[in-house]
Specification:
This protein folds into 6 domains: about 40 residues; about 270 residues, Alpha-Beta Barrel (TIM Barrel); about 100 residues, Elongation Factor Tu (Ef-tu), domain 3 (Beta Barrel); about 130 residues, Jelly Rolls (Sandwich); about 120 residues, Sandwich (Immunoglobulin-like); about 80 residues, Sandwich (Immunoglobulin-like). The protein is built from 14 helices and 46 strands. The strands form 11 sheets. An 8-stranded parallel β-sheet has the order 5-4-3-2-1-8-7-6. Strands 21, 24, 25, 27, 28 and 30 form a 6-stranded antiparallel β-sheet that branches. The protein has a 5-stranded antiparallel β-sheet with strand order 22-23-31-26-29. The radius of gyration is 32 Å and the shape is flat. One of its GO terms (molecular function) is carbohydrate binding. Pfam families: CarboxypepD_reg (PF13620), fn3 (PF00041), Glyco_hydro_cc (PF11790). Keywords: Membrane, Transmembrane, Transmembrane helix.
Length: about 850
């Protein structure tokens, strides 16, 4: 009826106006988040949809052979690369059926035909869609493409990955795009576009590549939380075994997610692999087929047992590539590392011998076929296929035994000396060993559940103490720092001064701290602050880096990995990443580094703390044991510091850095060692004092040194330096050292060195949030200020409207928010120690 219809129209109009007013006057961002969640709710079984069917593969063509291979294995997820530049070369004109690895119509038909799910990585913006001077697309244009993509394939897309490897090669050729600050606006816009079109689609981050240790925390700190459903990464450790880094890396990712309240979200591994040939891959990274299978099994097993890695996609599934599970063509030209027969092979022979010397690119090469070939497989000599069961190498040759002649119904014939021997596991249209490894694992573990979760191995424990980096806030001038830096008393993050590095060449320019002792085989976390002058070239990376060295100063490893800061928007930005020390590490050098461009950077407030990556796991129902001894719970707890063996005296237990020696046994020698000289205090923190001294001499050799603290022996060591840990803050300690030899002769006491430990650093907190406009979006460059101990502290919101006031002593602060043309707003905010208080503010535009 007309009147009722008019009433309905009026009701709809008022409802719409109500929503608009609600958005305009809401003073807190969470209200907007709630409205967005109301309009675009997650599917009711969102967690379940992420946690089922964990296996997938990458491919570029998805032909029937590939799909049948997936079905045979039991993998259910296709990772499809969606090349925007091919689909929309001209703005507004779409071609979804491009050939050459981009026939999306065909791929989606194949997925439907074989019952597979698609995770689409949408990458490579066309030139017309890129931001000026950047590789990243304009956020609104990328959002439009995603909406068109979803409209084209409604209900057929299970997940969308927002760009690909943006922290590394995905942003080529603009190096500075590796900084997360340029990616975050694209991610946030894309998430809302996807959810508005289809809230059931899972949205993941770009695949983070090459062990990116600081990038993920950047996403959280700079406002990207709530803009992805899963963290996505790629894992390619070269020829190295995954036991050296995989569980440590995923544990770090999980720790960061839990820190920022995303502990319920999963992690996806959308690419991982090792190559067994150099076809389209690095020849220096070749592993054997057996190693490839072993490494794959490790990643699959540890992902399943982690409880938080929920998807794994091998790269690559089907094609002509050194990583593929199914190799498609007999293309021998790329893989010239194939041996020849040392002697002729008779038709009745059950073993053959090949040379370990071959030729590649015209140059002699030596190859260990017991490593490069599967332990059992199929060879081809001329036209005869020959199975084998074992390999042994000796005297520059490899003997292949257990031959099955005429495999695959080929003809058994004799073969002449120097005939080329081809291994079909490496070259032919063949399901390689790793294909069956993947298949067997899937069939043994078709689904993953909490009952399979276990404590992850190969995660280095936290160090026993922080590294006492002296003058880490640069308030004592240049003390303990070297290289191309100066002290700037006009710039400071928390105090009055900072280190300044000026780069006028674009090459690497850096300063560094004197080497400090480090514990081997341990996990640490470094944090600091950097500020880049916006008047520079805009292409300069500024980073706090570390080099782990052995005791002699030889370089071992460095950090961070694929983590860059090119833009701080004229304010201070936090540097944060973990690193682990090799088992033979003895010292660490911290660098303040700039490269790739010209400009000025300041560094301040650097700290290095132990990093505990233990993650609690569910405790299964215990199985009764035949003894009354309680079975330890498999629940993961922080790894304890190993209890050191006490010295033979009733003195205090030595610190964890010392290793007591057994009581010497006299052997007739009565000459005492010389006195240790020049005992010095070389570093002090609130809980540790580090000492060094000149070595003693002895006629039969010095066996070690006894360390005395306040006249009580506390340690016995063999080196000429010692770190006395677990001390009280603001306390004075005195030390002397005595040397002893193998016969038990003890020197006189050294000089005494005294020091007072520092006061414990005051636990501080922070205030952070986003500044919104009452009429449109966020207010970048808004000024946020407050008084701290009588001094004015100000920060500027970044391009996302995000700000952080850090290092605030616990107190209640009157915080003022200012932006030109808007009414100032002043809010009282209480800060607690070691906590960040979130305050989102909407400023009202003046009329």
């Amino acid at each position: 009826m007309p009147n009722q219809k008019g009433f309905a129209h009026l009701f709809i109009l008022f409802a719409a106006l109500g929503i608009i007013v609600f958005l305009l006057v809401s003073s807190m961002a969470p209200f907007k988040d709630k409205l967005f969640s109301f309009l675009y709710p997650k599917p009711s079984s969102f967690a379940e949809s992420i946690n089922t069917e964990p296996y997938g593969v990458n491919d570029w063509n998805w032909i029937d052979d590939s799909m049948l291979g997936m079905q045979e294995m039991g993998a259910k997820w296709m990772r499809v690369m969606v090349n925007w530049s091919s689909i929309e070369a001209t703005q507004g004109t779409y071609n979804w059926s491009q050939g050459a690895n981009n026939n999306l119509d065909f791929y989606f038909n194949q997925a439907q035909k074989y019952g597979m799910k698609i995770s689409a990585s949408v990458y490579n913006a066309p030139a017309w869609a890129k931001q000026p001077g950047l590789s990243e697309p304009q956020p609104d244009l990328y959002a439009n493409l995603l909406k068109a993509f979803i409209q084209k394939y409604p209900g057929k897309i299970a997940a969308i990955e927002i760009l690909n490897e943006e922290n590394t090669g995905g942003c080529w050729p603009v190096a500075k795009c590796r900084d997360s600050i340029y990616y975050i606006p694209v991610l946030k816009s894309a998430y809302q576009a996807v959810k508005s079109a289809d809230p059931n689609i899972i949205v993941t981050t770009s695949g983070l590549w090459a062990n990116p240790t600081g990038y993920l925390e950047d996403l959280y700190l700079m406002g990207a939380k709530g803009s992805f459903d899963a963290v996505n990464f790629h894992y390619y450790p070269g020829k190295n075994a995954p036991s050296g880094s995989y569980t440590w890396l995923i544990s770090h990712f999980r720790k960061v997610m839990e820190k920022y309240g995303d502990g319920d979200k999963p992690i996806w591994l959308t690419e991982f692999g090792w190559n067994i040939t150099d076809e389209q891959q690095n020849a220096n990274n070749i592993v054997s087929p057996q190693e490839q299978s072993d490494y794959m099994s490790y990643v699959l097993d540890k992902s399943m047992k982690s409880g938080f890695v929920n998807k794994v996609f091998w790269y690559d599934h089907h094609g002509d590539d050194g990583m593929t599970l199914i190799h498609t063509t007999n293309n021998y030209s790329w893989n010239t590392l194939q041996p020849t027969l040392v002697s002729s092979l008779g038709a009745g022979d059950t073993s053959l011998v090949v040379s370990n010397t071959t030729v590649k690119n015209g140059a002699p090469q030596t190859a260990d076929w017991t490593r490069n070939w599967p332990k059992d497989g199929v060879l081809q000599v001329d036209n005869e296929k020959i199975g084998y069961t074992s390999l042994t190498s000796a005297n520059g040759n490899t003997t292949v035994s257990g031959l099955t002649r005429g495999a695959g119904s080929t003809t058994v014939v004799s073969h002449a000396q120097d005939t080329r021997v081809l291994n079909l596991d490496l070259t032919a249209n063949f399901k390689r060993q790793a294909f069956y490894t993947y298949k067997n694992f899937i069939q043994a573990n078709p689904t993953w559940s909490s009952s399979q979760v276990a404590t992850l191995p190969d995660v280095p424990p936290p160090a026993s103490a922080a590294i006492p980096l002296s003058n880490a806030g640069f308030e004592s001038g240049i003390t303990d720092w070297l290289g191309s830096l100066t002290i700037d008393s006009t710039q400071g993050h928390s105090g009055t001064s900072s280190a300044k590095v000026v780069n006028t060449t674009g090459a690497v320019v850096r300063g560094w701290h004197q080497a400090v002792p480090v514990e081997p085989g341990k996990s640490y976390f470094i944090k600091g602050w950097v500020k880049i002058d916006p008047a520079g070239s805009g292409n300069m990376n500024a980073m706090i880096t570390v080099d782990a060295q052995d005791a002699s100063g030889k370089y071992l490893t460095g950090g961070p990995s694929n983590y860059y800061i090119y833009d701080t928007e004229g304010t201070w930005r936090e540097v944060h990443y973990p690193f682990k020390t090799p088992d033979n590490a003895g010292r660490l050098v911290v660098y303040l580094s700039t490269d790739t461009g010209t400009g000025t950077a300041w560094f301040d407030d650097i700290s290095i703390e132990p990093y505990d990556l233990s993650i609690p796991t569910p405790t299964p129902t215990p199985t009764p044991t035949p003894t009354p001894t309680p079975t330890p719970s498999p629940t993961s707890t922080p790894l304890p510091t190993p209890t050191p063996t006490p010295t033979p005296t009733p003195t205090p237990t030595p610190s964890p850095t010392s290793t007591p020696l057994p009581t010497p046994t006299p052997i007739g020698d009565t000459q005492h060692p010389t006195v240790p000289t020049n005992v010095l205090v070389v570093a002090i923190s609130s809980s540790q004092i580090n000492l060094s001294w000149n070595p003693s001499t002895d006629n039969v050799g010095v066996a070690g040194y006894d360390i005395y603290r306040n006249s009580v022996k506390v340690a016995t060591i063999t080196t000429t330096s010692y770190g006395d840990a677990n001390l009280l803050p603001s306390a004075t300690y005195s030390y002397f050292v005595k040397a002893f030899d193998k016969a038990g002769n003890i020197s006189a006491s050294s000089n005494t060195a005294s020091a007072t430990t520092k006061s414990p650093p005051q636990a501080t907190g922070a205030i952070s949030g986003t500044v919104f406009s009452s009429v449109s979006g966020v207010l970048k460059r808004a000024t946020i200020s407050t008084l701290v101990n009588g001094s004015r502290r100000s920060v500027t919101a970044n391009s996302l409207g995000v700000y952080i006031l850090s290092n605030l002593p616990p107190a209640t602060y009157s915080v003022n928010y200012h932006y030109s043309g808007y009414q100032d707003q002043k809010i009282n905010v209480t800060v607690n120690s070691a906590q960040t208080t979130t305050k989102n503010v909407t400023l009202i535009k003046r009329r």
